[in-house]
Automatic annotation (TrEMBL):
Biological process per Gene Ontology, one example term: methylation
PROSITE patterns documented for this protein: SAM_OMT_II
The name this protein goes by in its record: O-methyltransferase
Keywords linked to the UniProt accession: Methyltransferase, Transferase
Length: 143
């Protein structure tokens, strides 16, 4: 069975990436709706360095610990970069800059729509629609 485990883990990783879309979307939406990316970019430009998670929390009126946790999660998606010095500090990555409000080509609108509670609720009804053959959204969508 040479290669079996390598193929298995590669395939399992792909399945994990597909099924973990909900938390990735939640991270994106929260970063955008709370303005974290815009704040980090503005402060980093102003100070010419990384921005402390606690400062982001203070400026956005959010919980310090959960702000840090969210930013750490965002770093796993390469949206922000965590720095060793100062500890608990972040900058926006090139990928994360697509979330900036003032960019003409910003992905903000897409993220706010795709991550909306309304759209998420619709997708949660997919199984019901497939079982019954009836739309769960009226005529608004195919579903």
């Amino acid at each position: 069975m040479p290669g079996y485990y390598e193929e298995y883990f590669e395939d399992f990783h792909t399945i994990f990436n597909i099924c973990s879309g909900h938390w990735k979307t939640a991270i994106l939406r929260t970063l955008v709706s709370l303005g974290f990316i815009d704040i980090i970019e503005a402060k980093a430009t102003e100070t010419k360095g990384p921005v402390l998670a606690s400062e982001v929390a203070s400026l956005c009126h959010t919980d310090k610990d959960f702000t840090y946790r969210l930013l750490r999660a965002a770093s796993t998606l390469s949206l922000v970069k965590e720095h060793d010095y100062p500890q608990y500090s972040f900058t926006v990555t090139r990928l994360g800059s697509l979330l900036l409000k003032d960019r003409e080509d910003s992905a903000r609108g897409l993220i706010l729509w795709e991550g909306s509670k309304e759209l998420c609720h619709i997708w949660l009804e997919l199984e019901k629609a497939v079982k019954t053959g009836k739309k769960v959204t009226g005529d608004m969508f195919w579903l």
